[in-house]
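Let's practice the habit of predicting before peeking. Look at the sequence and jot down your guess about where helices and strands might fall. Then scroll down.
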Amino acid sequence: MALILNLETAGTNCSVSLARDGQLLAIAEENSPGYSHSEQLHPFIKAVLQKAGLGFETLDAVAVSKGPGSYTGLRIGVSAAKGLCYALDIPLISLPTLRGMALQFKEAEGILIPVLDARRMEVYSAVYSEGHEELRATRAEIITPESYAEYASRGRAHLLGSGAKKCREVLAHPNFEFHDAIVPSAREMAGPADLKYREREFEDTAYFEPFYLKDFLPKG
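Done guessing? Here is the structure:
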């Protein structure tokens, strides 16, 4: 009976959920382009526990979205998760941000390509099957007219997330579909976090760092 607190701060959506055995009990989130995570995260944590009528001492683990994404957002989420794990002496679980985005999309057949906006024509992206199995690992890349062409040539390819808007301006293949309203959310963390808890896949709380990815343009 694992009770897990899930924190998602990799994008513009500050999102916190509470789940028992992979089943959502409560969620609090707000998608703000101003990245107000530093003000909202801790109140959201308290809010989901209050909604469920539970206290911090009942938590069995904390799961955090590990990135890639906003440098500041990831730091805030990971710092909060580590602090709770240390204070409560419970394990830390990390989950890939882009897979969480892919898990939101269940409506149609085709390849799933979560894309988080980075800067200029750059995105963080990964590629998943319609069954949410990873086909290509997460990477930072510049969008060109040839991007993801190999997937579009096979059938429908769904671009999910904030990076889909800039992709729409460049990618012309008719098999591409764009879903830019999808944002990372703690809602989709419940099931994967519970699975990792059952399999005892925990992070070293002292040494864990977010998955930032490196800059892919030289700094001028």
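How did you do? The helical segments are 37-52, 71-88, 97-103, 149-152, 164-168, 190-198.
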